[in-house]
């Protein structure tokens, strides 16, 4: 009940809704939109209602969809909030997946709208724009020669679908929050990869509901569903070391055989993990926007925890956890180790070098901003000296 109470529409304005307003479970939006779509009702925010000038600009951007400086925020504005649908339709065409799998374009569009609308637009970070950003990054990684030379159409479709749906129906809070509020999903998945399991199962539900793959043999669709699950579950950050250790072993032993489906699938898992956390490797302006968005989502969770007298989760205390300190820790312990191994796998391609260069420059900028924050806090001390409690806080911030 507590979880439902927290996520009524009035929560964002700081109010608590009544019991009557607390009726939407996590997946209600999906069933609502799916039923509308299957009755043939066109979504209100349709791509085809856009001004021709905007469509022209969006098409021009799609011609450069393989470029690392692709601005997903601009693309989302040009497509009137339909970045995920528009991007996936284009990429399915580019990779020849529609022809290869004999997909029906209307059914594909309906399925993608279901996915896009199942993301929560009120989430600052885990929304459809993030999904589109991850999908665009995945497209770039699928074109890396070391991987591209071995990929089958099935691999490509799985990679793109997993990227698009990897955070579908994300509630804007993390797994520990679901566990300590005793949410039904935490019980359902026994506190293990709770969100990732939900993203996967929701995706399977939409695939079956849309009948996008209904014309394929049953054994093929079952295999696709299982592999989608394996890919999406790999994005659980709690499994980071597991994948890093395995990747390091493969690279050190030089025993990756991409002719084998199992090894290709493992590298698709790594590619999706990279795409999911690639924000620090983007241009500063884009990276900074994503950093601010994810921290805003953290802080909202922290505010809810404080309001309901729950222990505030790590990184969610706006008074203590600053954006620069959060980002520096994230880059140091999560992003750098993964992308250095990815560069080792790809063979230091221009894309990998570009990403690592952005990562180093962005980290330096966050360090500079953190230093300015510390200098400002010192100058604001009335005595002109850093007090013991202030010094402790600064030391804590420097150790993410």
TrEMBL record:
One of the protein's GO biological processes: signal transduction
Entry's Gene Ontology molecular function annotations: 3',5'-cyclic-AMP phosphodiesterase activity; metal ion binding
Lineage: superkingdom: Eukaryota
Cofactor(s) needed: a divalent metal cation
Region called Disordered, residue ranges: 371-400
Biased composition range(s): Polar residues: 376-393
Binding site for Zn(2+) 2: 167
Gene3D superfamilies in the cross-refs: 3'5'-cyclic nucleotide phosphodiesterase, catalytic domain
Catalytic activity annotation: 3',5'-cyclic AMP + H2O = AMP + H(+)
Ranges for domain PDEase: 50-373
Biological pathway: Purine metabolism; 3',5'-cyclic AMP degradation; AMP from 3',5'-cyclic AMP: step 1/1
Active-site residues (renumbered): 126
Binding residue positions for AMP: 126-130, 167, 276, 327
EC numbers on record: 3.1.4.53
Keyword terms, alphabetized: cAMP, Hydrolase, Metal-binding
Keyword Metal-binding applies: yes
Keyword Metal-binding part of the UniProt annotation: yes
PROSITE patterns reported in the protein's UniProt record: PDEASE_I_1, PDEASE_I_2
Binding residues for Zn(2+) 1: 130, 166-167, 276
UniProt similarity note: Belongs to the cyclic nucleotide phosphodiesterase family. PDE7 subfamily.
Protein name per the record: 3',5'-cyclic-AMP phosphodiesterase
Species name: Xiphorhynchus elegans
